[in-house]
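Re: that backbone. Tokens:
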């Protein structure tokens, strides 16, 4: 068995483990000298030199300059080569698709937004996806075939048992049983599909408020109310992909909604969804309630209320906090998470004032008492999560030097 690439403990496997450790350190710290890489990995200078030569020959690292200006002699600095691979993400919502391409370091190099108005899409979904992706690829100065992997985030989830999109009847054109096969045929790279709120949780776990936390719930409120569940460090998706579809949750304070998938709504959505904020504000006598799209109206109302210390604005925040905590109490009673991350503009616009009110209400409604925090990823969090998901798999594949042809050193 000696020399088998997959045998644990063989020199080739150990080299690949060291290579990956060095690449991860370069991603985390930026350009490093050979000596610094050796110190961080525990490798000797000769071994670190061999490692860097191997990674440079493989096109994974490059020399980016020298350590001039520091004490001692200058040394070459090495960094991950951004062009070693590219990954892409799509954020699909009714009315538009956002697309972005990132290089292997995580830097976004191209963006594009494709409007998809109307209940009956003017173009088939496959054309929409390829047009959105191509727009971001062109903005990055690349060709479609240079993208290593694509992750597409949508409302609802594709049922792993049937391949059909569920829990998102408001997304026109995406419910054909042949859609995934058609997309696979049209795109040259591997494609993964993930629920949009799950991708926000992934972004917060990797880059934001949930870093270092293995058990947390992310509550999302924007066009719809949903949650992502991370248990033992992993997303919990459920048997049909529907874990976290809490908008359908029956809750006190609103009539039972029946045939919820046809209604595309449920008790918690009817109680605490963003569409309820303008109504609640009028009932409480809040002046100058904005009109227009309800998500924008909710965001403006919350931001304005957070700036007022008393009066109907404060009553609006208190009443809304109670509604939000009502559904959260059910979630935390079942899951007992360490942390709850509040995300989406119909939550984060209320800032620390709304967060503290929800925390206080939740402590009265549930025995479990997780800490509530506001999400850190505010700019296109679904798209950022899609890129992070695509990059994670891309790095696992591209950075695995045990898969490359071996040349004796």
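Recovered sequence:
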């Amino acid at each position: 068995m000696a020399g088998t690439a997959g045998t644990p403990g063989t020199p080739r496997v150990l080299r690949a483990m060291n290579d990956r450790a060095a690449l991860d350190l370069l991603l985390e710290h930026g350009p490093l000298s050979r000596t610094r890489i050796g110190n961080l990995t525990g490798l000797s200078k000769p071994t670190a030199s061999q490692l860097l030569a191997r990674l440079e020959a493989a096109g994974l690292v490059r020399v980016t300059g020298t350590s001039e200006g520091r004490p001692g002699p200058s040394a070459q600095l090495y960094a991950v080569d951004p062009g070693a691979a590219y990954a892409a993400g799509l954020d699909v919502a009714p009315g538009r698709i956002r697309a972005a391409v990132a290089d292997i370091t995580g830097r976004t190099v191209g963006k594009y937004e494709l409007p998809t108005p109307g209940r009956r899409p003017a173009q088939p979904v496959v054309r929409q996806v390829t047009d959105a992706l191509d727009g971001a690829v062109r903005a990055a100065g690349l060709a479609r075939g240079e993208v290593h992997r694509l992750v597409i985030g949508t409302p609802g989830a594709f049922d792993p048992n049937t391949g059909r999109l569920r829990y998102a009847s408001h997304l026109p054109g995406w419910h054909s049983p042949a859609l995934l096969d058609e997309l696979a045929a049209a795109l040259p790279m591997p494609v993964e599909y993930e629920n949009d709120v799950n991708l926000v949780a992934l972004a917060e776990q990797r880059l934001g408020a949930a870093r270092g936390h293995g058990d947390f719930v992310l509550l999302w409120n924007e066009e719809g109310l949903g949650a992502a569940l991370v248990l033992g460090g992993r997303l919990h998706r459920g048997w049909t992909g529907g874990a976290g579809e809490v908008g359908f949750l029956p809750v006190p304070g609103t009539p039972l909604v029946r045939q919820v998938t046809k209604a595309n709504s449920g008790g918690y959505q009817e109680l605490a969804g963003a569409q309820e904020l303008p109504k609640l504000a009028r009932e409480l006598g809040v002046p100058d309630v904005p009109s227009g799209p309800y998500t924008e109206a909710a965001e403006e109302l919350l931001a304005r209320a957070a700036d007022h210390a008393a009066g109907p604005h404060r009553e609006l925040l208190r009443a809304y906090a109670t509604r939000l905590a009502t559904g959260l109490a059910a979630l935390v009673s079942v899951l007992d998470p360490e942390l709850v991350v509040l995300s989406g503009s119909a939550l984060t616009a209320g800032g620390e004032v709304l967060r503290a009110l929800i925390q206080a209400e939740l402590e009265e409604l549930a025995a479990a008492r997780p800490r509530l925090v506001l999400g850190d990823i505010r700019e296109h969090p679904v798209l950022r999560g899609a890129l992070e998901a695509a990059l994670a798999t891309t790095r696992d594949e591209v950075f695995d030097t045990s898969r490359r042809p071996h040349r004796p050193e």
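The radius of gyration is 24 Å. Residues 311-335 form the longest helix (25 residues).
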